[in-house]
Amino acid sequence: MDAVGLRFGWLHIGFFHIELLHYYLVQDPGSSYSRPVIVDAHLDIAWNAISAGRGFLGEPAPGYVVSRSSLARGGVGLVFATLYTAPAHARRSMRTRFVYENAHEAGLMATAEVNYYKSCDLTLIGDRQQLQRYVRGWRRGRLAAVLLMEGADPVESPAQLGAWVDRGVRIIGPAWGRTRYSGGTHAPGGLTALGVQLLKAMRRGRDRAARGHARDQLLRAPPEVERPRDSRRHRPPRSAPRPRGRGSRTRGPGDRPRRRIRRKALRD
Fold first, then answer.
1. Domains along the chain?
2. Rounded to whole angstroms, how far apart are CA atoms 225 and 119?
3. Of 89, 113, 193, 211, which sits most exposed with the smallest number of CB within 10 A?
4. Beta strands 182-184 and 187-191: pairing type?
5. Long-range pairs for 225-232 at CB < 8 Å and ≥24 separation?
6. What is the DSSP track for 113-167?
7. What is the CA angle 104-109-110, rounded to 5?
8. How far apart are CA 51 and CA 97, in angstroms?
9. pTM of the shown model
């Protein structure tokens, strides 16, 4: 299990990664009575709706568990909603015809996903102040989202980063498999020259890079890059002197089974 904690002013956010489950808690550590907000940190809502016809607003499709109503019943108050686009080389592995051949097509697909999220009556979190207000006033049944781009190919060039920020994107993972920006899952290689430019643009825009799916070479980015803040969602396993025998599992986008774990508020 990976665990990490971040502090945003009075907010304390705990991150837990347990194989198939992304589980987060957000709580004001200074109050004994604050209500913790459960966060699902990786949901491919728009991809499932557009590519597979599993809409978010109704009840879950047979064999699946995620919908707006099921998240509300489970007490989830915040989701990291992905903008995932499948490259053409993943057509067979992802079992989909909804793929892109170039960056322009990837951008059109991701734009369609942004529009889908806006149609789902989700509050899109844009900054820390909005997050703080939302957590303070949160009540069971309310749901907000942070938009997360999984694989940066929809950004046709680093110069277009601002346009995606204007659309609501707040987290960008340069890699899924191989992208124009970096190597990724089953695709050795670090940042490309274009990837270095993207991270510099993200730094200038005070955005945050997520290193999910990125290879070890990405963790050793060129020294001239002052890295954006790191938000590791599900990084690939790295070599260790004493392996514990824990196997890796490659996952594609989609609904994931849930495991029941004890909910415990994080405090200082």
1. 2-230 (3.20.20.140)
2. 37
3. 193
4. antiparallel
5. 225/191, 225/196, 225/199, 225/200, 226/200, 227/199, 227/203, 228/199, 228/202, 228/203, 231/171, 232/2, 232/4
6. HHHHHHTTTPEEP-SHHHHHHHHHH--TT--EEEEEEESSTTS-SGGGHHHHHHH
7. 95
8. 8
9. 0.71
